[in-house]
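Regression test attached.
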Amino acid sequence: MDIHLKKSELKKEPLAVQITGSKSETNRLLLLQALYPELHIENQSNSDDSSVMLSALTSKDAVIDIHHAGTAMRFLTAYFSTLKERTVTLTGSQRMTERPIAILVNALTDLGADIEYITENGFPPLRITGKTLPNHKVALQANVSSQYISALLLIAPTLKNGLELTLKGTITSVPYIKMTLHLLEQIGVKTQFENQIITVYPHLGTVKKQTIVVESDWSSASYFYSIVALSEIGTRITLNSYKKTSLQGDSVLAQLYDQFGVTSEFKDHTLNLTKTRAVQKDTVIAFNLVNAPDIAQTIAITALGLGLQCDLSGLHTLKIKETDRLEALKVEIEKLGGKIDVTDSRLHLSKNEKLTGGISIATYNDHRMAMAFAPLALKISILIEDASVVSKSYPTFWDDLKRIGFSF
Ligand SMILES: O=C(O)C1=C[C@@H](OP(=O)(O)O)[C@@H](O)[C@H](O)C1
Ligand SMILES: C=C(OP(=O)(O)O)C(=O)O
């Protein structure tokens, strides 16, 4: 299904959006709940990635397909490695079979796991035979994906001697590792992160019965930051179930979007985004997003919509996500008349005056391509191809846009 967004104006009445829980927190907690059934989770993510995670954890099937869900692929590889007397084939979409997993598989194998590659070395699908993992010390390269590290940390408390994980090289996406450690601590597992070594102490048996309320998803909130940034002064959107102190690294949006003239105010559990100032045309947006890679597309497109120069660095993980996001951005931004250069880890967008309307944007099976480009409908008419891709993280995205005034 393609969606044609007409040039739109937001409604004048108070605008409020309820986004569901973070998919990152939800997928961690679902795994922890499988290990410790005493946990109860509220405000779970309604994303496809979280529903495939839940189905996989409850499935008795021999073949489990996690579609496009990176966290599910990585977290479940670790989980099934420890699930005794069961052999599972873990597979996913075509793209998932191109997303590397050797760093995690090697670390698990070093711990004693039994994992085979079915088609190509280093990539899913995997055949995993669960067993007791006898070892507890392992080292891995930390600059490719933090998901490999979180996967190991999540199963670590169930290992007889816990885990001592040495991280080699520069660590990428650090807030996601801290989120995992924080959730472990929250349920009663002891952890330590010092220099490049993470220790998780064993926690065999049960945890205290408890309810954990997931904070709403900040990556999804980014599209509303972009919408407010592209709107006139005075525009305000309220987002519900957010906290000033968040476990999610993407909450850095509140600081970053100040440069686009958007002010963030927290009141109880609501977050008010208000466009308070116009942005000077010669403003240069320059951010290193090594800690918040999922908001790179949103920021690049906000800058494009405002005609601003934008230099983003720390983007090396974007090439192995749902698509090569740097290439995808380049092709689609150029269709709109933008000037953009990309390298393996950076993006440079030149200041521009005018965007071409009526263009069809390809989305490459990437929810964030669809959602990042949509706010441009406040400036030009635009067509988003295969618009249902948004369900990977935000199934009600188009309904929410319609409710605040976007015309389809
Ligand atoms: O652990 C997580 O929940 C995630 C970690 C990040 O991946 P990388 O560590 O591969 O950058 C992020 O991009 C992804 O959307 C979710
Ligand atoms: C990169 C993402 O997800 P994953 O790696 O879990 O597929 C994302 O949601 O932007």
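Expected vs. actual: identical. The two ends are 13 Å apart (CA to CA).
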